[in-house]
Amino acid sequence: MNIKKLFNKNRYIPKNISYPFLIIWALVVLFFSIDTVTQIASDKDTKQKTENVQGTQTVSFQKTPPTPTVTPASTPFAQQEARKPTPQANQAGTRTGKIISYKEWCSGGKQISIYENELITKKSTDGKTYTMTQGDWDCYEKKLQTNQNKLVQGVWDNVKANAANSGYSVCIYKAKFDVDECGKKCNDTWAYYKDACAAGYTGESPLIESSTERYSECIDENSDINSQCQAKCTNDYQTALKKCSSDAGYQ
Question: What is the DSSP letter of 109?
Fold first, then answer.
């Protein structure tokens, strides 16, 4: 192959150069040409891969934490406020007057706040008038009854101790006690009916006709009932006395 003719006076071939040097020069040029082509091809391939990678969409998965569930309180604050203790209503369910401070007798002197109309003023069985709540009235009357029972029992114990050999004395005492209790019940009943007659006369009770004549009849009728009640007490007492004498051997 004619190398010189191949390059055909190419600018890469210096003039006045020998053939050995020309061959070396051609090899050098060929080496750099091949290296350049290889580098270009390598850069192109790298660029293509980079574009492919950049064009790839990235899909990521992220766990969403569960939304916390908030459970509301079972009782709203407003309802809790409404549960604060308030003064108790009286039996009629109405509250009137101002709120006052009251010391409970039944609970040992506990201080409470109540409405004025929750206090009840009346006469107790001990004959005295008090102003208390219904609860204190119940406690007080129960205490009086308990004390009365203890008193009666104490009297009986003393009678039996002082007259252990006298059954007659004990029997007489019991008969007298029974007749007194019987008379009290008759009087209480009579007082109740007198109030009922008066309520009918004033129109406060629709069960009894409102007239002066009817009021008089009502009083007379119940007066007779009271007389019969007292008479029965007396008869029972006389019968008890006779039994005491009979049991003691006096008859």
Answer: S
Pick from 24, 27, 26, 4: nearest CA to 16: 4
State if pTM tops 0.85. no
Estimate the crossing angle of helix 212-248 against helix 167-202, to 10 degrees. 170
Number of domains in the chain: 3
> 169 and 159 in contact (C-beta within 8 Å)?
yes
Which tokens hold the place of 14? 């210096």
Q: Please report whether residue 73 resides in a domain.
A: no
**Backbone φ and ψ of 202, nearest 5°:** -85, -5
Q: Among 159, 180, 208, where does a domain finish?
A: 159
> What six digits make up the tokens of 60?
């990521």
Res 86: pLDDT: 47
Question: Which residue in 37, 35, 33, 24 sits closest to 3, CA to CA?
Answer: 24
pLDDT at 15: 55
Q: Is the pLDDT of residue 123 over 90?
A: no
Alpha helices, DSSP H, located in 113-211: 134-162, 167-202
Indicate if 141 and 182 belong to the same structural domain: no
